[in-house]
Amino acid sequence: MTTKQTILGVSLQLFMQLGFESTYMDAIAEKAGVTKPAIYYYFKDKQALFEASASFFLDQMAQMMLPDGVEDLPLKELIFAAFGSLPESMSRYQRMSGIEEPTSLLRSQMFIYDAMTRVPDFRLGIGELYGKSAQLLQQTCERAAAQGQIRSGIDGSTFGILVNSMIEGLILMSMMDPHMNLEILGRKSAETVWRMVET
């Protein structure tokens, strides 16, 4: 890992844990094991570092939401893969934020709000990310309908948005309830969604 990558990873963690206003360059330098001048070598100021951290966050989220190979899966497998990846997604999110306690992860949601207000293209970037995920589900749904694998009359676009919303909702609920078993709930959710659409 390069010095720049280390600074970005640490910065993202602190921004997610503390927010923009309460994150200081001294703390970033100390946790990253670098000097403040080293940070300023790569990033002209705190705003530039925050913007780079927001971009890094989007890259990490893209890897979680759209891993390689999912675009070729049949609809049933895609549904089970999406819901089945919830525990791993939660674990990766915890590592990215540096926050281990699920209920404390709710703090990290303020980072998204901060990024939407401080980084001009962040809202567009996160919208594109969710749009790609929904589009993948829509296209896979339409292929399944054409092949007679699911009931006719299911709107693929709405289906994609609904599945994304369910997944996000389960992740958010697990942040509020640390006793929630995402593995079991993910599997049951996938089974339920598939029963709702299968022929």
Q: Mind explaining what this structure looks like?
A:
The protein has helices spanning 3-18, 25-32, 36-42, 46-65, 75-84, 86-97, 109-118, 122-146, 156-176, 182-197. By secondary structure, the chain is an all-alpha fold. It has one domain (55-197): Tetracycline Repressor, domain 2, CATH 1.10.357. Helix 1 crosses helix 4, helix 4 packs antiparallel against helix 6 (86-97) and helix 8 crosses helix 9 (156-176). The longest helix is centred in the C-terminal third of the chain and has 25 residues, at 122-146. The radius of gyration is 19 Å and the shape is elongated. The model has no long low-confidence stretch (mean pLDDT 94).
Summarize the structure.
The chain has 199 residues and is mainly α. It is 73% helix and 0% strand.
